[in-house]
């Protein structure tokens, strides 16, 4: 036989717990509906900064500029044209004659009209 007393007590405990929790949330959230009163911040006067002193720099010394020298490129020397060298003709190499290979023996061939056995029995055309 099954024992069913354990789960039956959980439902009333769950209802009691939820009802106790829901009352606290309503009371705690009431102050959110009212308009909040914020404290007023007093306005402070803006501070004035004293003027900065003017800094006088001594004049920069005058540096004379030098003229840019134009570099002179050297001329390309003239190279005389060279003649193409002629190579001597290559000698023809004689290949030695290869020995004749003996002919291969004739392989036996299978006849082409061999019947292949069937693994399934032949179908009968007559009915018993």
Structure description:
The chain has helices at 5-28, 30-33. The protein is an all-alpha fold and 128 residues long. The longest helix is centred in the N-terminal third of the chain and has 24 residues, at 5-28. The chain is flat. The two termini are 64 Å apart. The mean pLDDT is 80.
The helix content, as a percent range, equals 10-25%
How many strands appear in the DSSP assignment? 0
Shape: flat
Please give the radius of gyration in angstroms.
58 Å
Give the integer mean of the pLDDT values.
80
Count of DSSP-assigned helices: 2
- End-to-end gap: 64 Å
Main sheet properties:
none
Order of helices and strands: HH
Strand content: under 5%
Poorly predicted regions: none
Structural class: mainly alpha
């Amino acid at each position: 036989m099954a024992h069913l007393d354990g789960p039956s007590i959980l439902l009333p405990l769950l209802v009691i717990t939820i009802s106790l929790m829901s009352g606290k949330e309503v009371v705690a959230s009431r102050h959110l509906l009212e308009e909040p009163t914020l404290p007023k911040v007093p306005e402070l006067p803006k501070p004035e900064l004293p003027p900065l002193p003017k800094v006088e720099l001594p004049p920069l010394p005058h540096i004379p500029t030098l003229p840019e020298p134009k570099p002179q490129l050297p001329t390309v020397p003239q190279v005389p044209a060279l003649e193409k060298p002629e190579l001597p003709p290559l000698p023809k190499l004689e290949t030695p004659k290869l020995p004749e290979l003996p002919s291969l023996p004739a392989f036996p061939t299978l006849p082409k009209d061999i019947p292949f056995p069937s693994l399934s029995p032949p179908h009968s055309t007559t009915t018993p």
